[in-house]
Amino acid sequence: MTNSSFFSIAFGIGTKNSQGNWLEVYYPTPLYQPDSKIVEAVTVTLDYKGGNQALDLNKDQLEPLATALDSIAPEQSDIIRSMVSSTRPLVVTLLETDSALSTTPEAYLKLHLLSHRLVKPHDLDLSGIFPMLPNVAWTNQGAIDLADLPERQMEARLNGELLEVSCIDKFPKMTNYVVPTGVRIAHTARVRLGAYLGEGTTVMHEGFVNFNAGTMGESMIEGRVSAGVVVNSGSDLGGSASIIGTLSGGNDIVISVGEGCLLGANAGLGIPLGDRCTIEAGLYLTAGAKVSVLDSNNQFVEVVKARELANKPDLLFIRNSQSGTIECRTNKSAIELNKELHSHN
Amino acid sequence: MTNSSFFSIAFGIGTKNSQGNWLEVYYPTPLYQPDSKIVEAVTVTLDYKGGNQALDLNKDQLEPLATALDSIAPEQSDIIRSMVSSTRPLVVTLLETDSALSTTPEAYLKLHLLSHRLVKPHDLDLSGIFPMLPNVAWTNQGAIDLADLPERQMEARLNGELLEVSCIDKFPKMTNYVVPTGVRIAHTARVRLGAYLGEGTTVMHEGFVNFNAGTMGESMIEGRVSAGVVVNSGSDLGGSASIIGTLSGGNDIVISVGEGCLLGANAGLGIPLGDRCTIEAGLYLTAGAKVSVLDSNNQFVEVVKARELANKPDLLFIRNSQSGTIECRTNKSAIELNKELHSHN
Amino acid sequence: MTNSSFFSIAFGIGTKNSQGNWLEVYYPTPLYQPDSKIVEAVTVTLDYKGGNQALDLNKDQLEPLATALDSIAPEQSDIIRSMVSSTRPLVVTLLETDSALSTTPEAYLKLHLLSHRLVKPHDLDLSGIFPMLPNVAWTNQGAIDLADLPERQMEARLNGELLEVSCIDKFPKMTNYVVPTGVRIAHTARVRLGAYLGEGTTVMHEGFVNFNAGTMGESMIEGRVSAGVVVNSGSDLGGSASIIGTLSGGNDIVISVGEGCLLGANAGLGIPLGDRCTIEAGLYLTAGAKVSVLDSNNQFVEVVKARELANKPDLLFIRNSQSGTIECRTNKSAIELNKELHSHN
Q1: Any CB–CB contact under 8 A between B15 and chain A?
Q2: Which of B22, B95, B187, B267 could form a disulfide with B7 if both were Cys (CB 3.0 to 4.6 A apart)?
C-alpha cells in the first residue's frame, strides 16, 4: 500500500477535569499523513468508521493495537505498550481530513504537528481552535481546571508544599510537549505549543513565538514573532523587536520576514519584508508610514507608503537622525526605483 | 447586626524563617468589611482587644473559632478546620482600620485584598509597605530566607534534587496566592501579588502588572502596567508598551489610561490618557513633549506640551513620518480645540 | 605561606549524561587565588601535577582531602565531607592559570567566579567557552541531555508527573547556582550564570543580564544588559532599554554605562556612555546617529556622530519632539564644547 491521504493519527496521554472533559493532551510522536497500512491497522482494531474523532482508549484496547502495529510502526507500538501501566487518561486522535476543529484533542494534535515541524504555519486549518482550548492553570502538578485551583492551592499549603501556577492560558508552553532538534530557547515560557522553530533557531530571553508562527531556519530571535508571522532563514530579530500579527492589528495581511533580514532592537514591522532588508534599531515601520525612498546615491526619489515596499528586497529603513524623516535606502538607481514603485506589483 | 466598619479579617497559613519571622502569608478567602457578627465572634473567641494585629494561631484556638463561625461564615470555618491537620504557621490578621502597615501579615493581607478585587488600586493605605515585605527566595520548596538559601541549595544538590529559585524579591507572583475569575495570564511571573486584574483581562507573555495597579475590565495587556497605573475597561496595551509609574519617574502624578484606548507596540505614555485615545506603535509620549495639535481637517492649530492634553478624549498621537513632529490628531474643529486648550482644565 | 599565584580551585557536584559527559557543575564556594597552603594540600592529596584540570572525585578521596583542609580551609572541608553521602558526580577543578577553556567544569567555574563577584566582567579569559557549554534541557528534575529528553518526558507523563522544561540553553539561570548578597531579581530566568550583580542591584521583571556583564553597584535594571556590557554604580535602565552587546552587533567596542546615568524606558544605547548622562525614553542612540550638540544656552553648536560623544559626561540625549532631530544638550558653553569635540579624545 502507498502513502494514504489520511491526515493524521496520534496516540496521546492527557489530563481531564473532574467533569471528564479534556484539559490537554500530550502526543509523544504524532503521525502526519500516515502510511495506509497504519491507517488500516488502527481502523480495523478500533472499529473506526472514519471522520475526525478523538477516541478515549481503554486498557483492553492497548495490546491489540500494539500488536497490529508491531511490524509496520514499531515506535508507535512501543508507546502504546508503555501506556498499559499508566493510570492517566489515554486517547487516540484520528483526523481523516484537515478540517475545522471540534474537540480539544484535535486542537492539541494540530499544535503538535506544527511544533514537530510536520506542517508549516498557515498550512493547517485551525478554524475554531480558540473554543476548543480550555483556559487551564498550568502548574507543577500538571494541568488543573481553574474551578479546582483554590482547593488544590489550599491543600498544597496545608501539606507544606507549593502549588506553582506558571501560566493561566489556553496554550501551554511548547517545551513541555516537544523540543525540536537544533534549537535553543533561553526561556521556554515564551514559546507556545504550536510554534514552528526551524533547525538552528535560538530564541533568547526576550524572544517570543506564538502558535502558527515561527522560523524557517537559522535565526536569532530576541523579539516577538506574533501569531501568523513567518521569519525566513538567516533573519534575526533584535531585543523587543515587534512584528504586527494576525491577531493584533495585522488583520488579514500576513506579515513575514524574508531571508537574511535584520530587525534592530526595539524596532517594529507592519509590512511583509523582502529578503536582505534591515530596519534600524528603534524604528517602528507601520504599513501607513510615509517613507522617503532614496536611490543608490542617497538621492531622494519619491515618498511612498511603507506598504508599497512590501516584499521588495535589499532595503534599509532608518529614521534620519537630523530630519526625523523615515527613509528607505536602496542599492538601485533612481530610474530602476521609479519603475519598480509604479509597477503596482 | 449590620455591616460593620471593621476593615478586614483573614485567616492565613504562611512561612517563617528560622528566627520566627514571617516571610509570607497566604490567605485563601480574606474578608473585606466583614459583617459585625463575624467580628464579634472572632473578638470574643480570641479575646482580641481591637487595633490592627496579626496573631499567631495555635491548634487549640482553631476548633472554638470554627464553631463560633459555623453558622455565620461557614466558608471561614471550613478553612479553619482544615488547618487543624497542618504543621505550618497559622495566623489571623485583624485590621480594624485601613492604616499604615506595621507587620508582614498585614502587608500580605492588603496585597490579597487588591488581587481578590475587594479593593481597587489607590483605595488602600499602603504606606510603609516596603519594610514590611522581606526580600525572599521564592523556590519550588516555598519561600526561603536568603540567609538559609546556600545551605538549602547544597542539601538539594547532594540529594540529587534541584532547588529552583524563581524569584528573589519582596513581592511574590500573584497566581500562587489568587487567580481571579475570567483572566488569562500567559506568564505568571510578570504579575505581582497586589495587582488588580479586571474580569476579561488577558496578560500576554510580554505584559506586566505591578502591585497597586491594574485593569478595570476587558483588556489585552502586552505592555507594562507600572505601580500605581490604572487601565480602564476596553483598553489594550501593545507589546512592550511602557507606562511611567509612580515608582519610576512619574512622581506624584498618577498615570491612568481611559476606556477604549490603544497603546501601540513599543509605545510609551507619560500622561494620564483620556477615553478612546491611541498612541501609535513606537511613539513614546512623555509629559514634556511638545505636540502639534491638528484639527479635524488635519490643519495645524497650536503646539502644546503633552501634559496639557492629559485626560482629554478622542486623541490620536503619532510621529509624522516625514517631518518627525509629534502630532495629536483630533475630531474637533480648530475653534473648539482652541477653546479647550486654553480652558486650563 | 603567602597568597599564591594559583588562579582557582573549586569542589563541585554536577550532572553527567549517559555517555559520562558533564552537563553542568555546581560549585558551592569556589576559591579565587587560593592561599598557597590550600593549593599545596590539594596538590599533595590528589597527586596533582599542575595545569588546568577537572578531576572526577571518587568517594575514597573525600575524607583525606577534607582532613588535609580542616585547619586551613574549614569551609571547604565541610563541603567535601557533606559530599560523602551523595550519589551525584563530584569534581575538583584546578585552574593553575586563567587560560582558554578546555572542559565543561572549567567553563562553569569561570561563570561561578563572575557571579560570586570574585572577578569582574572582562577580567577573565573566556575564549573557547561556547563549545565547552553543552546545550542542556534545564528541568524540574535537573539538567537533562537533549537526547534523553523525549523518553524522560514520556516517563513522567505515564507516572502522572510533569517534566517541566524551563530552558533549553548553554547557560543556566544564575540563581540556581549563586545568589549574591544585597540583590533582588524579580524574575530569575533573565539572569544567566556568569552575570555580575553588584550589591544594591534590583533586576525587575523586564530586566536582563547576560554572562560576562553586569552592574558594579546600586542599579535599577529594567532593561537589557547584553553580553560584555558593564553598568556602573548609580545608573538605572528603564523598561525594555536596550544596550548593544559584544555578541549582538557591538563588535569589538565594549559598551559601558557610566555612573549616575539613566536610560529611559524603551531607549537604546550603542556607544559607551559617560557619567551622569541621560537618554530620553524611547530614543535609540546608535553609534552612527548624527547628533546636534547644543550648548548650555540650548544654542546649536555642531553636528557630530554619536560615537564622538562616547564616554563624555553630563549629556542629555533627546529627540526634539517638533523637529525630529536627535539633540545632545550639555551644561557647557559653546566654546568649551567646540574644544572638546575637536580634541579627538
Answers
A1: no
A2: B95
Judged by a CB distance cut-off of 8 A, whether residue C57 touches chain B is no
Kindly state whether residue C53 falls inside one of the protein's structural domains.
yes
Q: How far is B322 from chain A (nearest CA, A)?
A: 4
Least CB–CB distance from C164: residue in A86, A87, A140: A140
**Is residue B216 domain-shared with residue B322, that is, in the same domain?**
yes
Q: Which grid coordinates are listed for B33?
A: 468589611
- Say how far apart CA C254 and CA C94 lie, in whole Å: 30
Asked if residue C143 and residue C127 are part of one domain, the reply reads: no
Let me know whether C108 and C193 are in one domain. no
Q: Judge: C266–B150 Cβ closer than 8 Å, yes or no.
A: no
Strand partners, C15: C24
The three cell numbers of residue A34 are 500516515
Residue C150, all three cell numbers: 523525549
| Same domain membership, residue A184 and residue A317 | yes
- Residue ranges of alpha helices (H) inside chain B are 36-46, 59-69, 74-82, 104-115, 129-132, 149-158, 334-341
Residues of B in contact with A282 (CB under 8 A): 282
pLDDT of residue C64: 96
pLDDT value at position A253? 75
Distance from C-alpha of C40 to C-alpha of C61, rounded to nearest angstrom: 16
The answer on pLDDT for A91 being more than 80 is yes
* Whole-number average pLDDT of chain A: 95
Taking the C-alpha atoms of residue C118 and residue C32, their distance in angstroms, rounded to an integer, is: 7
* B319 interface with C at CB cutoff 8 Å: yes
Pairing of strands B136-139, B142-145: antiparallel
Determine, for residues C171 and A188 on separate chains, whether the beta-carbon distance falls below 8 Å: no
Which CATH number does the domain housing residue C289 bear?
Answer: 2.160.10.10
- Which amino acid belongs to residue B5? S
**In a domain? residue C2:** no
- Which residue from C85, C87, C185 is facing B168, i.e. has the nearest CB? C185
* C159 and C301 belong to one structural domain: no
Q: What is the DSSP letter of C118?
A: S
Q: Which residues of C touch A166 (CB under 8 A)?
A: 164
Domain extent, residue C121, equals 8-132
Mean pLDDT of C321-333: 95
* Band of residue A250 on the pLDDT scale cut at 50, 70, 90: very low
Q: Does C164 touch chain A (CB under 8 A)?
A: yes
Query: Is the domain of C182 the same as that of C74?
Result: no
Examine the residue annotation and report whether A199 is marked as an active-site residue of this protein: no
Q: In what side-by-side order are the strands of the sheet with A230-231? A: A195-197, A213-215, A230-231, A256-257
Q: What is the nearest CA distance from B166 to chain C, expressed in angstroms?
A: 5
Computed over every residue of chain C, the mean pLDDT equals 95
**Of A106, A222, A280, A327, which is the active-site residue?**
A222
A88 in the same domain as A55? yes
Does some domain include residue B1? no
φ, ψ of residue C136 to 5 degrees: the values are -125, 145
> Is pLDDT above 60 for C3?
no
Is C200 an interface residue toward B (CB < 8 Å)? no
A244 and A325 together in one domain: yes
Nearest C-alpha of chain C: how many angstroms from B109? 21
The total number of structural domains in chain C stands at 3
Which of C216, C203, C124, C137 shows the shortest CA–CA distance to C170? C137
The pLDDT of residue B4: 63
Q: Phi/psi at A273 (nearest 5 deg)?
A: -100, 135
CA distance C38 to chain A (A): 38
Buried residues in C39-67 as b, exposed as e (16+ CB within 10 A): bbbbbebbebeeebbbbebeeebbeebbe
Q: Chains with 3 or more CB pairs closer than 8 angstroms to C?
A: A, B
B43 within domain boundaries: yes
Global confidence as pTM: 0.96
C289-305 pLDDT, tens per residue? Answer: 999 999 999 999 999 99
